[in-house]
């Protein structure tokens, strides 16, 4: 079975990359990359009671998911989803571990509810009314490709349009020293089985074991290596340049994923 | 979907290490729930703790993975010839053609909880011995198993709270149908930790006594731990009457609330209907339902309404969580294995601990074992974030040869 899907919309948010428009300008070489701290805003999608409870990871995931579905001009309520993140909400995790290390062990019920790895997916479905299947994955540094493989497989096998959201945020200390992620980076793709009016490109995905592509710009290469979701940058660069061609993405130690990109004109 | 054969399966929980003792406990209606004496926990609750986990040793070359969660996985792997069955599949299909898809909610977070008690007094740093990627990170359980079993295919963890290890069956099904892999090791592993014990307590969702699913006096869950695995392959050749097949997978989202189910169980209903559709079966074909049945007032109420709306009030079901506790991210896989045991054993397990069924709950709840064979079983798993998954398993003997 050929693993192909059409990309109907893209969302990006990361250090010095405010959205896909800016990321595309940087990744196509039209604009120099100037790294700056990732700016996250409260998700307007959520009712104010929920908005207050969300941490950085939810803000990030919802921002890129919303950008991708808006660009695809698709009502997100009708999309299935695959969320993939290496670590979930690191700040929330730290607060819980800290509370559990103290004598009283006063755990906040909201923090506990938000500690599930699928918190962002849950808030997304509540905010958009998306009732289709939603899968939430983790594959440590390979989380982007794990999500891509799961998402494309679902598009192909079930003929299902879906939203792929890959996102990672930093841990505070002391976990940050053990798992140093410098900042937040997220990328989202709307994937459809058939071409549509907003389709940017068709991608053909294959599992292999070639050496992964790197980024020419040292600052972008450093971003690619330092945040798992940014392992998507070589693919995003192809999409930004609207080049036909092949790119190889880092997956698990023994394997990689080759993506052939055919832009839609 | 195209049916998949459970070529091998095993489960380890507080009611047994492996299939035979699990079956014996179900037959004898034994609960493994005991008053909580786990670690330094000081709350009044009951837990389903697996005996002997602390004594398990991981292979030396994988010692950085050492934590309760991976020890529990190792213990389970050694039962029922599961490890050997995976080895045979690897020689048949090749190591790169077998995927590893595991469900967990908390992986080895207990290591982090303990490490936080031993931070450097001056710098606040965690101890040098603390291993993030091999214990704390959710992926650690899939990473441990693929290394332990020498598999090199796709690997990932699904972490959708308490539906995690039901949903891995869906991922495996898609990857096999897409032709990316020829077989999949699926399962779930979750182990006792302070985050879930104190977390559910803070939400007032855990009971002080052993949980009583569907009871009029039910007042919360009992947390358990388990590791359960299945080796999924496309069926080939003639199947034996006792062979168990995965026939259907249905998934949905509630889009309602982070920690409470939809009050009428709309998401649960959609998941069950999608599973029936995927299996090509009518609701009447289901002989027994292994309910999610956590024992909280709202979960059981919502599930009962959903079950009744899909199946009516006649299809028998029960929750085995009164015996095993709620094993959270491992519950889907544990109850998949219990469903397979039910299909083979010729009886439907009645729920233990439940003395008086809540008259408001209309679904047919079994309190006693029913000595009639089931040919098709549906198993429900629902989780925080409003994530739902229903699986359908069948005895190969129940199907016309294809």
Would you kindly provide a brief summary of this structure?
The complex is a heterodimer of chains A (265) and B (402). In chain A, 35% of the residues lie in helices and 22% in strands. Chain A has 265 residues and is of the alpha+beta class.
Outline of chain B:
globular
Number of helices of chain B: 12
**Biggest interface and its residues per chain?**
A-B, 62 and 65 residues
Q: What's the CATH architecture name of chain A?
A: 3-Layer(aba) Sandwich
CATH class of chain A: Alpha Beta
Helix proportion of chain A: 25-40%
- Tell me, briefly, the overall form of chain A: globular
Number of strands of chain B: 15
- Strand order across the biggest sheet of chain A? 3-2-4-5-1-6-8-7
Characterization of the model:
- The complex is a heterodimer of chains A (265) and B (402).
- Chain A is α+β, with helices and mostly antiparallel strands.
- Chain A has a single domain, classed as 3-Layer(aba) Sandwich (Peroxisomal Thiolase, Chain A, domain 1).
- Helix content of chain A is 35%, strand content 22%.
- Chain A has ten helices and eight strands.
- Chain A has helices at residues 20-27, 48-51, 56-71, 90-101, 109-114, 119-128, 143-158, 175-178, 218-226, 233-241, and strands spanning 4-13, 80-84, 134-138, 162-168, 185-192, 201-208, 245-250, 256-263.
- The relative contact order of chain A is 0.21.
- Chain B has a single domain (4-397), classed as Thiolase/Chalcone synthase (Peroxisomal Thiolase, Chain A, domain 1, 3-Layer(aba) Sandwich), CATH 3.40.47.10.
- Chain B is built from twelve helices and 15 strands.
- In chain B, strands 1, 2, 5, 6, 7, 9, 10, 11, 12, 13, 14 and 15 form a twelve-stranded mixed β-sheet that branches. Chain B has a three-stranded mixed β-sheet with strand order 3-4-8.
- In chain B, β1 (4-13) and β2 form a beta hairpin.
- The model of chain B has no long low-confidence stretch (mean pLDDT 97).
- At the A-B interface, α4, α5, α6, β3 and α7 of A face α4, α5, α6, β6 and α7 of B.
